[in-house]
Structures are given as C-alpha cells and as structure tokens.
C-alpha cells in the first residue's frame, strides 16, 4: 500500500500541473474581439477567442506570457496572471500605392502545384496554427499581377467549419512580414472534401516583387470542434479525439516554402525523413494555389 502511494506521488511530481485560465479580449471601446490568436509564448499551447471574445487556455505556470494577435489590431504580450480582460489597440493600416489600382479581370492564370494525393493532418490542432505557402514572383505575372483568388482543398465532418485567410508580404529575413489584408477574411467550408475558391479581388493586392505568403489560420473554437472516434494500435478500445475542422490537404514536397506561426512566432518548416525505409527528405506544404488576373 505504501509503495502504491509513493508511486502515485512520484507520478504527480513527474508531470506539470496545468490550470485553466479564462479571460476576454476586447477593443478600446470594450467591444469583444472574436477569433483572436492566442499562444503561450515559445510553447506549443494555444487557443482562439470565441465569437463573444471569451477564451480558456491551460497553462502550467501563471508567470508565463501569452501572445495575442488579430488582423486590424496591435499584437500584445501579457502575463497569464493578468489576463482577466485583455484590451487590444486598433492598428493603423498603411495602403501601398499598388493596392489601390483597379483590376480589369479579363485574363486569368492559376499558379502553385497541388496534388490531390496528399494527406489531411488531424494532429495539428494543439492551437490556432497559421500555415502559409510562399509564392515567388515571376516576371511573367506582370500581365496578370492581381491576386484574384486563393484555392484551398479541405475536408470536414461538420457543415460550417470556419477558417481565417492570411496574406503577407516578405520581410528582410525572408519570413512572413506585414499582413496585406486590411480586415478579417473568414471563410466557411461545407461537410466532406471540397475545393474552395476564396475571393481576394476586393483587396486589390498586386503580386509583390519579393513574392507573397498566402495561407490559413486554424480557429480553435467550439463551432469547429468535432469528437472523432479513434483507436490506437491493436487496442480495441475506442477513444474520442477532439478535432477542429476544417482539415487542409497537405502535399509532401522538396522545397522549403512553408512557414508556420505558433508559440507567438514564425517558424520555417524544414525537410525531414518522412517515411521508412526511404531516406528521402521532404517537408509538407499546404495544398494552396492562386488565381491571378489582370
């Protein structure tokens, strides 16, 4: 009996004790901000605020820092112990001269390689990850230099899964820089597997000479959640795994053109040995293509 109690005590001491932290994110007028991207800084733990601005997140230390970000607002870092009400300031959006040009839309080309034989990663839902794909500039785009549509391949078990779209320029380090959308762009996909064309024409974005990052943000919200029955290995017992939809198709590629945002910062996805016994090094890339117009 004593040995059992000691073993139980050792187990408790071996694992961090997580506490549930709750709060609300509002703007300067005390209006709730929905779908704010929230991460524990430098950790793989995150969440999104709900439509009413409320959020919950599990943390192991109240002295850790949370990073809050949302399109149209200045990012903010704050200690977990101070997150009862988080106020985000509205950010000023600087329009480039190229952004106010008008598209004629008489010609179209689609760029970006996509294979339908990819995989849907259900294990990427530890937080509101942002995945973007880099599209380099090509002089031949000069005759169709407006980004008209983003084409996204998704799978979902629910009827109205919502995803947020992002478009970034390239900073001096070659990472995603400034957001090129001046307001939120949310897109809802239906149940099943879909190829969706998301309209970007209203933003009048011309293709930057340094290239562009285009992608999506997973929203860790209740309306996107679905409990999927799974079993592990040879076990007959069925467990319910919490999955947030939609899932986005990924392709294994040779080029390192994918970047992800988590833990409050951007990371470049490196190549690794993706299957055995092959020694090929690959990295995943979201199945995204772009439709350009003039």
Automatic annotation (TrEMBL):
- The lineage's top-level taxon is Bacteria
Q: Which stretch is the leader sequence?
A: 1-19
Q: Which UniProt keywords apply?
A: Signal
Family matches, as Pfam families: CarbopepD_reg_2
Which InterPro entries does UniProt cross-reference here?
Answer: CarboxyPept-like_regulatory
Q: Respond yes or no to whether keyword Signal is given for this record.
A: yes
How is this protein named in the record?
Outer membrane protein
Q: Which organism is it from?
A: Flavobacterium limnosediminis JC2902
According to the entry, what is the taxonomic lineage of the organism? Bacteria, Pseudomonadati, Bacteroidota, Flavobacteriia, Flavobacteriales
């Amino acid at each position: 009996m004593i040995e059992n109690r000691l073993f139980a005590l050792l187990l408790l001491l071996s694992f961090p004790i997580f506490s549930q932290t709750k709060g609300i994110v509002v703007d300067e007028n005390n209006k709730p901000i929905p779908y704010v991207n929230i991460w524990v800084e430098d950790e793989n733990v995150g969440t999104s605020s709900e439509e009413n601005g409320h959020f919950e997140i599990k943390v192991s230390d109240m002295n850790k820092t949370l990073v809050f970000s949302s399109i149209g607002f200045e990012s903010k870092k704050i200690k977990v112990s101070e997150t009862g009400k988080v106020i985000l300031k509205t950010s000023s959006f600087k329009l480039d001269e190229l952004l106010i040009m008008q598209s004629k839309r008489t010609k179209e080309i689609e760029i970006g390689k996509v294979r339908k034989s990819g995989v849907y990663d259900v294990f990427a839902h530890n937080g509101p990850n942002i995945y973007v794909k880099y599209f380099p500039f090509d002089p031949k785009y000069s005759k169709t230099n407006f980004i008209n549509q983003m084409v996204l391949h998704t799978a979902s078990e629910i009827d109205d899964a919502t995803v947020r779209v992002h478009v970034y320029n390239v900073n001096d380090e070659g990472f995603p820089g400034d957001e090129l959308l001046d307001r939120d762009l949310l897109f809802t996909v239906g149940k099943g597997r879909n190829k969706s064309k998301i309209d970007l024409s209203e933003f009048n974005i011309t293709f930057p000479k340094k290239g562009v990052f285009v992608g999506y943000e997973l929203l860790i919200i209740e309306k996107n959640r679905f409990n999927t029955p799974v079993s592990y290995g040879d076990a007959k017992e069925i467990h319910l795994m919490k999955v947030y939809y939609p899932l986005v198709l990924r392709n294994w590629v040779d080029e390192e053109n994918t970047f992800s945002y988590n833990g409050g910062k951007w990371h470049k996805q490196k190549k690794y040995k993706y299957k055995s016994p092959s020694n090929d090094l690959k990295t995943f890339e979201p199945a995204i293509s772009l439709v350009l117009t003039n």
